[in-house]
Specification:
The chain is an alpha/beta fold. The protein contains 9 helices and 10 strands. Helix 8 links the parallel strand 7 and strand 8.
């Protein structure tokens, strides 16, 4: 699951738009990843996400009398190398604790690798400072969360509009696009309702409209049907399938075998490693 701190920041600054990617930033050292970018191969043509020998470690801490002292570090990813290309619908599956959400966090520039190379749209995250990473997320990525992350004081329309307004786009243009996307997800008549007046399925559709309103080339979804009943989940799945196109890539984490079966490609993660990578079985 995407970390709460990452979710909160994304509400205000990380929803995508269809504008060109930002210019490369001045190279800076990546925490815990010194010099990895300089020795990595050149970006692959057509690659949306590249990971080369990526590892991610989290420091542990002991509970009880020894609270606060360091325990053994947890290695969530242990040398992952993958390439995801434009237009693919990729499902990431695996047991709880296998590293699925960590992989999605890195693919969405929500976290930095401990070592290895992560590129998104050809940009090496190790060469981007925090402001450049924020612009990359805002301008090139869309996010759909299991728990919706809608602001409770805003209407459906205002929730969809907010990220584009914060990116400095004109209000009239943003409103028109937001209304268009709410209509696409079947919520034109619910645009004035606040989240507590919507069902779980309706809230997730608002979240999908928010993620797609700026036409991002990369959409990431973390358990998008995890809190929905079967019928409602099917409707959300159809929206995500429809979002995939020749120029938009969709990556999603799921425990739902029905979703994985309809993906172009399934990445199975186990114990921090890619157990299998190929078409659905």
């Amino acid at each position: 699951m995407i970390a709460p701190s990452a979710r909160n920041g994304l509400l205000l600054r990380s929803v995508s738009s269809g504008t060109p990617p930002p210019p490369p930033a001045t190279p800076v050292a990546s925490p815990g990843n010194p010099g990895s970018a300089s020795s990595s191969p050149a970006p692959l043509p057509g690659a949306v996400v590249e990971m080369i020998d990526v590892r991610k470690r989290y420091a542990g801490a002991l509970d009880g009398p020894e609270a606060g002292s360091e325990a053994a570090a947890v290695e969530a990813l242990r040398g992952v190398t993958i390439t995801i290309r434009a237009g693919e619908l990729v499902a990431i599956v695996g047991p709880s604790g296998s590293g699925k959400s960590t992989l999605l966090n890195l693919a969405g520039a929500l976290d930095r690798a401990t070592s290895g190379t992560v590129r998104i749209h050809g940009q090496d995250l190790a060469k981007l400072d925090d402001d450049a990473v924020t612009r990359l997320r805002r301008d090139r990525l869309g996010f759909v969360f299991q728990f919706f992350n809608l602001l409770p004081t805003l209407t459906a329309l205002e929730n969809v509009m907010l990220p584009s307004l914060l990116a400095g786009k004109a209000t009239a243009e943003v409103r028109a696009r937001a209304e268009e996307h709410l209509a696409k997800v079947g919520l034109a008549k619910r645009r004035g309702h606040k989240p507590d007046q919507l069902s779980g399925g309706e809230m997730q559709r608002v979240a999908i409209a928010r993620a797609l309103v700026s036409d991002p080339p990369l959409l990431l979804a973390d358990e998008p049907t995890g809190n929905l009943d079967t019928k409602t989940g099917e409707g959300v799945l159809e929206l995500l399938l429809g979002a995939t196109s020749a120029r938009r890539t969709v990556i999603l984490v799921t425990h739902d075998a029905r979703i994985a079966a309809r993906a172009d490609r399934v990445l199975e993660i186990k114990d921090g490693l890619v157990e299998s990578d190929g078409p659905p079985r």
